[in-house]
């Protein structure tokens, strides 16, 4: 392998030396013979033609553009209170062919449709539990199962209006679902900003491809939100409920509110009266029909959930129950993206739709299963252990890079509370070429497409590609130092 | 039995509060075991409360006062007819098949799992909080459940003392083991922890008692009239019968002298009142008066 | 717009104007201190400032010995964190409110007020010495002027602009009335002295604290007569710091925001306008300038309360019908 790399000599493209990675990981950009895959060839040729050094100027331009636009996110770690960082963006796009996308799109739609039926069932007749497809104890011990909302009918029976499904490619290049995100997933604003910046700095790349657009996401979302209005689409007042400026995703909240032309409100700007929700404006109370809420269930209504929450709206669940307001995503959706429930999703698809799942899961071990648990505890070093209700990459053990002390700690946690953990074998996420510090290097990445469920189920062509910027790392979350790429889905 | 219940509650704040929303769980249940004949709820400041049923089946009355105020008062007058004259009157399931029956019920109605699986500080894992010296009775498979539950109540009464005037549940049941005296709520929680550890669904109940309970007991040296307060007990899913009430505070099965008002996994699920408001004031004074009168005895 | 946003826009500029006017009166006193005759004590020069901003009681608390010195007054009014009306606190509140409404003001406006705050905060960490004070107040004037200039040139003339104008004009009217009230009575303790020749420096200080000295002299050629000063400061519709100019401006701002046809705000504004129309300077003086200005300040306070109930807290009503917008 090494000899082959050295013999490539004349090419300006010396990326391979920077780390092809373990032979196992699928490489998005390169074939096994180190030639670019067909759909990357035009881009590769362009880079070779203009010169790698030009990329440096482009990268700086991109950083400046993001800085000027104020595209930031907040990183929290143990020591810091929270620092605002410019969004870390890699200028080389990730390209998905039309054919690949067709399969993904079908799989995602199928998955979301099934998960929605699952939620409706869990909070009503619970047939799937009675039929023994999903263990009832799993649900009733689930942290995010919200019994308080049992029997409430959301508008059009939709629970997961907005979802982000995290996809990876295994060593053979097959797409697998890593995780579902049904609790107001974030990242959409970055997906759009990535595209805006990419267009600005690398128009010459776009010239060589037909890339499907993503900037219309806010319009698509607004349409889906208005569809839910109890007073009808024409009359709909939609607001975005934000926890406020100290929330790590605040940039996205302001971005989306602005792009959709809707009011950005905090809990204290809203008040319930006679089971309706109103916005406190300088010209009196204005009734609200749809709330796109970026506040967790726990903090949404102090009358029903946490009484100490100052971020929510007292009485909003009663207004929702009365059918006077739509909540997006519906409270209680979190049980369906619980990592322990994830393992049952293929069965859930089969149960409600009578179809074979188009997208497969990553193999998952349930810690509540005696055999699974024993196996995992014996093999922690090659496992990824996840706490079921966490997100953002926290509460996770990366077996291969962990210390003995960390593994011992997790073993203890698993034994004390097995319902709280699942484990998966380490899958080598696929790799791609990035332009980092003047060099072309390979890094692991994943893909989070966004799915909107309104009158129809729409998958935005593309999504957020998240890159683990640290060499060899498989952790892609921005809150832990990940970056991203613009994601292109090619038109036919 | 037919009862008339009058309940008055007032909350006074030291300073003005606003955007005050509250939910009340004070009305008696209306179901096969007891019939709610009439209900009248009056609020001051005047408001017409809305009603809904929560996920446990409790009737919830709610209202909001948005403008600044310092006081809220609620008066309830209700008439209820209790029908469970004989709680022992049902077709029992053979003891050997009781667990199977429960498993079947859970299978038919997974919602019941909440009453089996839920653990909290108020209803914790009994093994984790019971002191080593104490041995709570274990479940004997093959023996009738009803009898074992009665023995369990006897055990509670022997180890713990009831404070009849206490109306608050301890936030942590572990404390009860240290002090050995508690309210009816604490004893109900203890009983729930025990029954759940046996593998049976059991739920917390808050309600009203026949006024006779508060009357002075002539046998006492110093008979005293106790003020009427709401009471707490437990209900267990009895094979062949359904929910049956067990009052560990008095060692009795709940019959027609018990009026169910609210149920939950523990007392936190069904507080008398739940409210939020804006303003700095703490609730200064709360007044709570209850009067249950017998209208007609059962035939 | 959201009540909370309207309220923050209003208080952002009220606080900024307050900071500017506080700097203004301190500034003039510092300069005046250098120009005046040696006979005037520190107390007679600096006590009036405490009266104008209503900080006498707080000063007495801070300094039980009762001695009034320039350093003490400057510290209390400029940087004392325990003084809610100090320049420091006004700036802090202005910037906090600006942060709440960051999406409504231009990027340049936000950067201007944010940088201003960070600098001022740093500067005021140490005690401001009297001989450095003038420099600092000049800095404050420049930064505030920059902010308002940016507001004027970058904000769309809509509801947001309405609230920002309203806030600054109301505060300006408030401060002007206070300055006139206190200064005037120092200068004319005896009503019989109305019309007599007066100390050039004292009147100069009053007009300079309103940035109106030059404009006054251009408009009034009879010298510094109290009756003319009263007319200029209260009734002149073209002098940007006069009460009449401010109230007219406030009406314009409210028209931009949109007021309901009946209600507390409309009444409060009608009362303010009535107070300033159909009255002559002589009549004001005959009635008693202090009473007149006191009434004016009460009417302004009434407007603040009306704004609260009509725009910022309109939701606090339990009426069954909810306004349909």
Walk me through the structure.
The complex is a heterotrimer of chains A (492), B (299) and C (325). Chain A is an alpha+beta fold. Helices cover 31% and strands 23% of the residues of chain A. Chain A has helices at 2-6, 41-50, 53-69, 98-122, 127-130, 136-140, 188-201, 203-207, 217-227, 250-260, 297-300, 316-321, 339-342, 345-353, 370-378, 404-416, and strands spanning 72-75, 83-86, 89-96, 162-169, 175-181, 238-241, 263-265, 270-273, 276-281, 284-288, 290-293, 326-328, 360-361, 365-366, 383-387, 396-398, 421-425, 431-436, 439-448, 450-453, 457-459, 464-468, 482-489. A five-stranded mixed β-sheet of chain A has the order 3-23-22-19-18. Chain A has a five-stranded mixed β-sheet with strand order 13-5-4-20-21. A four-stranded parallel β-sheet of chain A has the order 7-6-11-12, with helices on one face. In chain A, α4 crosses α14 (345-353). Chain A is globular. Chain B starts with a strand and ends with a strand. In chain B, β9 (231-238) and β10 (242-247) form a beta hairpin. Helix content of chain B is 18%, strand content 38%. Chain B is an alpha+beta fold. Chain B is globular and about 60 Å long. With 325 residues, chain C is an all-alpha fold. Chains in contact: A-B, A-C, B-C. The A-B interface holds A 126, 129-130, 136-137, 139-141, 147-151, 271-275, 302-303, 307, 314-315, 318, 321 and B 19, 21-23, 50, 52, 54-55, 62, 64, 66, 106-108, 110-111, 113-114, 117, 274-276.
